[in-house]
Write a structure and sequence with these properties.
Layout: E1 11-16, E2 25-30, E3 39-48, H1 51-57, E4 75-82, E5 94-97, E6 107-111, E7 115-117, H2 124-129, H3 131-144, E8 152-155, H4 161-171, E9 176-181, H5 186-192, E10 196-199, H6 204-212, E11 217-222, H7 228-233, E12 236-244, H8 258-266, H9 273-279, E13 282-285, H10 295-310, E14 318-323, H11 327-335, E15 342-346
Parallel strand pairs: 8-9, 8-11, 9-10, 11-12, 12-13, 14-15
Antiparallel strand pairs: 1-2, 3-4, 3-6, 3-15, 4-5, 5-7
Length: about 350
């Protein structure tokens, strides 16, 4: 926000004012933050929306700050202030960062360790769409999932941000790719390289069995949870792996239902290490918010992702952008499952 003389007077942020439907999102102003030791300040051009933000808004995300709060895990923009002790960054550089919450802002102060320089060809929209989705997919597939060339991979919500990232990364290994989405998104998935799209509203387990046969599937990426994890585990191939990275089944529409959430949690099967040993199968979990401080794991992955971007092998797909004032419509758009790829907020 600027005054009549063109001088900046306030930071603008999108706040979750109370738990509820998307209309609880409100724009608020406050004084510009200043940098401290080891920090940079970014004038934000675009901020990414993730499903965890929606879960936080309805009051079902345990890691979120107490409401009222500002969420958001990723943002891109231009550095306009460099704090003491920071090396490698200068004012005017185009960057993206991964804050642990606070990304729905036009002014982001963040540790320089959480910031990456943008490739010259990358747009601010692409940069805001890349961090969480691609680092999550990379971690699940190549750190936890140990994808081998020619592996088969089953991706739930394949038309979402993480799903599209996983598709693009799977193509670099020549994988057989199977993915769920609503039927109107299947042509897009095929164009992206999905060999076998499956209707997300249908009974996917028998369809997957028909595709992979008795051998099973090598890797499943499942953000759904509830009974879905047990069904996926039963379809794993020898040495196959199920990676769980969400519990979207707990969300019933755009408001909170504690009864529905509880029922989904109660349907999560308890897995025995003895059974996994006998079955030669593995279950992993991925919560990117709990890895933000483990830069020894994440920094090399970002370097590899930047290399893949520069080689043209990955490219974030932005479905749409919404202004801060239209943040409620952005959340509703995602609730309605209309998006293909990433939805962004722009100051």
């Amino acid at each position: 926000m600027f005054n009549a003389h063109g001088l900046r007077k306030a930071m603008r942020q999108v706040w979750i004012t109370k738990a509820g439907a998307p209309d609880v999102l409100k724009v608020r102003e406050s004084a510009d933050p200043e940098v401290a030791q080891g920090q940079v300040r970014i004038r934000v051009k675009a901020a990414g929306i993730n499903f965890a933000d929606l879960m936080a808004r309805v009051g079902l995300y345990p890691d979120a700050p107490p409401i009222p709060c500002v969420v958001g895990y990723e943002a891109s923009g231009v550095i306009d202030q460099v704090g003491p002790g920071v090396t490698g960054f200068v004012e005017g550089e185009r960057v993206f960062g991964m804050p642990k919450f606070g990304g729905y802002t036009d002014t982001l102060v963040i540790s320089a360790e959480q910031v990456q320089k943008m490739p010259e060809a990358m747009s601010f929209e692409e940069a805001a769409a890349l961090p969480v989705n691609y680092i999550t997919a990379y971690t699940m597939m190549f750190v936890q999932g140990t994808v081998r060339p020619g592996s088969s991979i089953f991706i739930h919500s394949a038309a979402g941000g993480v799903g599209i990232a996983a598709i693009q990364l799977a193509k670099t290994r020549g994988c057989t790719i199977i993915g769920t989405a609503s039927p109107q998104k299947h042509d897009y998935l095929r164009a992206q390289g999905v060999h076998h799209p499956i209707d997300s509203a249908a009974d996917w387990a028998p369809q997957l069995r028909q595709i992979v046969g008795e051998r099973g599937v090598d890797l499943i990426l499942d953000p759904v949870g509830g009974p879905s994890w047990k069904r996926g585990y039963d379809l794993l191939a020898p040495c196959g792996r199920l990676v769980c990275f969400g519990l979207s089944a707990a969300a019933a529409g755009n408001t909170r239902s504690l009864f529905h959430a509880l029922m989904q949690v109660l349907q999560v099967k308890k897995f025995s290490p003895l059974d996994m040993m006998s079955d030669n199968r593995t279950i992993s979990g991925c919560n990117m918010g709990h890895l933000f401080s483990h830069l020894d794991l994440l920094t090399p992955q970002f370097s590899e992702l930047m290399k893949l971007y520069n080689e043209g092998l990955i490219k974030p797909h932005v479905d749409s952008t919404f202004s801060f004032e239209n943040a409620p419509q952005a959340h509703q758009f995602i609730h309605d499952r209309k998006a293909i790829g990433k939805v962004l907020l722009t100051p």
